[in-house]
């Protein structure tokens, strides 16, 4: 009864918010002053970072400029000083967590508390997945998203204390769509978008409304990263144009900035069932939950199973049941956060079983905590298992699929890869990355003409898998594993690209795109999402 009353009272509020948002389209937005703010910009040695520094210099801010390129950084600082700004330079490697933390301490000691943080540093490597070197994939995630965690963790406490600040995430249009030959980049930018959205929700839940967030998602830019970039999505942009939009967005406190604005519509596409009899199916995280139930379904369809899990007892229990169902089953105890262990286990699978034709990247990790309480090693572990493991496994298994132009790669993500909740920033960000991985891989396989290799991405709401203890929510149903896996198997057999469970989530997410922030915050309060992921840690939406 309480839920229906809350929902009924919410409807007129949502209507008012929507009308208010429509009116704002025709009313000039109030621009805040940033005079005297201490602004830290990463990747300030060229491109977007340099141009952003120039604009903040004109606005009489005190600048802290970070870059790994000392010469480029000093050139930027010289111009900022010519424009009348105080500029402090620090040579920082944003792929190095300890370098970030030690540099942050120096900034606090020598300059003061940063009140505007622009996470702009980025790297990109262009090649198909098989040709991309492992260190390049790791570097992409270290700079393009994990650095956002480390810088934000370093500077957020003072912002929280003062309930004042602005955190800017420089992402990309490639954080919303897949682009071939940029698989790691796309996935990392999806993660950055997820980081921004989850951080925004967490700050709202913590009632720190004085700390603003903005995410920049431009089309390809002439920054020198990519030679002669071109895309059918629109013109290649100049840094000045993009930064003008970024500064305007920061001063008017916009949450999401697309350049050009037409890209706003990015986030808004066979039903014959194939046989999987005789296919060699590798499932990670097969010791319980979705992985275990997926193994049972493939066993019933006469597939040959390769089951991986870090939990020996759990994976052997799964295997025993699969054998009862008549399936040939091979068990491997594998830590999916360990790249070398993944590669050596794949080599073993190839020798003992054969070439895998269907891989279900299901292993996952989750640690509930607000960002400042989250341990660095837990953040790193979340990314190692929830997304980097997908890269290592896919890199190892894809060559034989490409040779035959036959296979299926399944990414188990989450609705948290599209929408977010507070106290799960690393998890949400890693699941955004998983969605980006799926979309970019799909696009790359099409570009390579390997249409015989299919891809599917599973995005359920909360599932009773044991990851989250006693999950509950007023709006979304808490799903049972069997229901989710039925939808997954149906999606695999019909070559469905994106599988939402329940299916109406897709419509809900599209509608949310057009709702103002206050409306989304109200919906989150009515949802009343609660769960206990680790004994003693109670998480509740406020």
Automatic annotation (TrEMBL):
InterPro entries: NAD(P)-bd_dom_sf, SDR_fam. One of its GO terms (biological process) is steroid biosynthetic process. GO terms for molecular function: estradiol 17-beta-dehydrogenase [NAD(P)+] activity. It catalyses: 17beta-estradiol + NADP(+) = estrone + NADPH + H(+); 17beta-estradiol + NAD(+) = estrone + NADH + H(+). GO terms for cellular component: endoplasmic reticulum; lipid droplet. The keyword DNA-binding does not apply. It comes from the Eukaryota. It holds the Pfam family adh_short. Its EC number is 1.1.1.62. Keywords: Endoplasmic reticulum, Lipid biosynthesis, Lipid droplet, Lipid metabolism, NADP, Oxidoreductase, Signal, Steroid biosynthesis. It is found in: Endoplasmic reticulum; Lipid droplet. Residues 1-21 form the signal peptide. Belongs to the short-chain dehydrogenases/reductases (SDR) family. 17-beta-HSD 3 subfamily. This is Estradiol 17-beta-dehydrogenase 11. It comes from Capra hircus.
């Amino acid at each position: 009864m309480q839920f229906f009353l809350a929902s009924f009272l919410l409807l007129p509020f949502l209507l008012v918010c929507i009308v208010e948002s429509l009116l704002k389209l025709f009313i000039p937005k109030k621009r805040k002053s940033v005079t005297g703010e201490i602004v830290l910009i990463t990747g300030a040695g060229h491109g977007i970072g340099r141009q952003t520094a120039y604009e903040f210099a004109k606005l009489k801010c005190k600048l802290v400029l970070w870059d790994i390129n000392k010469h480029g950084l000093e050139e930027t600082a010289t111009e900022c000083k010519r424009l009348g700004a105080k500029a402090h330079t620090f040579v920082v490697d944003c792929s190095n967590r300890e370098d970030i933390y030690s540099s942050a301490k120096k900034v606090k000691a020598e300059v003061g508390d940063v009140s505007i943080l622009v996470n702009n540093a980025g790297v990109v490597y262009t090649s198909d997945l098989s040709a991309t070197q492992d260190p390049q994939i790791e570097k992409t995630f270290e700079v393009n998203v994990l650095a956002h965690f480390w810088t934000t963790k370093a500077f957020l406490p003072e912002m929280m204390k003062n309930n004042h600040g602005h955190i800017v995430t420089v992402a990309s249009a490639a954080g919303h769509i897949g682009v071939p030959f940029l698989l790691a980049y796309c996935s990392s930018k999806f993660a950055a978008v997820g980081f921004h959205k989850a951080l925004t929700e967490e700050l709202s839940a913590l009632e720190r409304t004085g700390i603003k967030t903005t995410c920049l998602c431009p089309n390809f830019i002439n920054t020198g990263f990519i030679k002669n970039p071109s895309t059918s999505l629109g013109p290649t942009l100049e840094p000045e144009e993009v930064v003008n939009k970024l500064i305007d967005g920061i001063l008017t406190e916009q949450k999401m900035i697309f350049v050009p604005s037409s890209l706003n519509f990015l986030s808004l596409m066979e039903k014959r069932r194939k046989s999987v009899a005789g296919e060699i199916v590798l499932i990670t995280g097969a010791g319980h939950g979705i992985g275990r139930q997926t193994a049972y379904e493939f066993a019933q369809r006469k597939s040959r199973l390769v089951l991986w899990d870090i939990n020996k007892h759990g994976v052997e229990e799964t295997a025993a049941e699969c054998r009862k169902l008549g399936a040939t089953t091979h068990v491997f105890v594998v830590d999916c956060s360990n790249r070398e262990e993944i590669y050596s286990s794949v080599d073993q699978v190839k020798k003992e079983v054969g070439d895998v034709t269907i891989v279900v990247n299901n292993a996952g990790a989750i640690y509930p905590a607000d960002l400042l309480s989250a341990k660095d090693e837990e953040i790193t572990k979340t990314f190692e298992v929830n997304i980097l493991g997908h890269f290592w496994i896919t890199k190892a298994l894809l060559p034989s699929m490409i040779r035959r132009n036959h296979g299926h790669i399944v990414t188990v993500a989450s609705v948290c890869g599209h929408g977010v909740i507070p106290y799960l920033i690393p998890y949400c960000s890693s699941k955004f990355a998983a969605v980006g991985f799926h979309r970019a891989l799909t696009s790359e396989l099409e570009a390579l003409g390997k249409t015989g290799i299919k891809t599917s991405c599973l995005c359920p709401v909360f599932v009773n898998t044991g990851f989250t203890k006693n999950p509950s929510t007023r709006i979304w149903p808490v799903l049972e594993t069997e229901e989710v896996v039925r939808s997954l198997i149906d999606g695999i057999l019909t070559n469905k690209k994106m599988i939402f469970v329940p299916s109406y989530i897709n419509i809900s997410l599209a509608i949310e795109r057009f709702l103002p922030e206050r409306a989304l915050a109200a919906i989150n309060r009515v949802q009343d999402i609660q769960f206990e992921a680790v004994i003693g840690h109670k998480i509740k939406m406020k």
